[in-house]
Structures are given as C-alpha cells and as structure tokens.
C-alpha cells in the first residue's frame, strides 16, 4: 500500500500550522496513525529547513517502538526528541489518529498570564466556542517531553479532552484526522489571541450567556472541517506563490 497521500497530508498540515504562526523554525511536529503498529511522523534530517518547508519526504514511517517502520525509512532521518508526545497520546485513546504538537506563542502567553481559555465568544468561531466550553486542561511542566513517563503525565493532564496546553512550552492537539488536529489548534490560538486583546484593551473576560448555546449548532464537518481546510490550503498556496 502506498503511503504517499498520507505523507503529503501530514506535510501539508505542518505547512498550514506554520503559515498560521502556530510553529516557528524547527520546532513542532505532526503524526498520523497508520495501524496498530505504525505511524507517520515528521522527522528531521541534515537538509531540514524548518516546519514551514516540510516536504512529504520528511514524513517517515516508524513503529510504536520508535524504530523504522520499513527498510530505509529512517535512513538520513531522526525521529523528534518528543516522539513520546505522539506515542502516548495515541496509546491513551484509539480515536487519536492524528497528533499535532505545536508552539503557538499566544496560547503560551495567555496561559503564563493566568488567562484560562474560556468560551468568551460564540458565532465568531462555533467549533472554538464548544472546544473552550468543554475545558482546555493544562499540563503544568515546561519540560521537553522525551520520555514515556513524561508523555503519560501529559496525557493524564489532557484527560478526555482533545487539546492540552503544555505550560511554558506549547500545545498538543489530537483528533481523528490531520485536518481536525490542526483546525483545533487554530481555534485554540484564536481564543488565546482574542483573550489577550480583550485584556490588553482593559476589558474583562466573560463567558457567553448560557442561553446562547442552543443557537450555536454543529454545522457539520462539511463546513467545520472540509471547507475550513480548503481555505487553509488555499491561503497557504497564496502565501507561498
């Protein structure tokens, strides 16, 4: 079975995340579960020029032991130091097919400022509002998560939520698809940016009214994921053309 479409999608997800300012330079990586024993993950090489320039060839097949998933897969490539983020997040929940570990500055800044991610708006971004309503947990260690033990600590903090903030570090977003994992991160970043803007303007953060939730329906994956992802891909193409 050819994995080229999946490699291309993971690489595209990396570039979209970078274009959105969710990562900078060499830091950050995405992964996609292929089966119970294998995943694709962004790896580094001596020719790596950063997440914004991720190539399908940078997406390598590995096992859940961190070894090459097929002959030659890690020739000239190294798995990320924080591979345990991906392995332990996928092990924690079978629904976690895709994992995005990113470093959005606004989310890190908001958390360090003591600003919790809350549903402060509604129709401005309905998926983001519902994401915030369910709660965004925080893993309160600003460490490099390079061991299974630390990965398990992070997933314990994450609980049953799809995203977790790693204090002084970044975020982990997990979903059934690469598109959803990145779009969740975009929504989280938008909430953090708006929260910082409101506070900077001297305002007070307030949750939207309870009565408003009935008028914030799930508009379906056609709009929330497929259309949203087409926009991100088109915006990326316009930015790099």
TrEMBL record:
One of its GO terms (cellular component) is cytosol. GO terms for molecular function: aldehyde-lyase activity; metal ion binding. Residues 8-196 form the Class II aldolase/adducin N-terminal domain. It holds the Pfam family Aldolase_II. It comes from the Bacteria. Keywords: Lyase, Metal-binding. SUPFAM superfamilies: AraD/HMP-PK domain-like (SSF53639). GO terms for biological process: pentose catabolic process. InterPro entries: Aldolase_class_II_sugar_metab, Aldolase_II/adducin_N, Aldolase_II/adducin_N_sf. This is 3,4-dihydroxyphthalate decarboxylase. It comes from Mycobacterium gordonae. The lineage of its organism: Bacteria, Bacillati, Actinomycetota, Actinomycetes, Mycobacteriales.
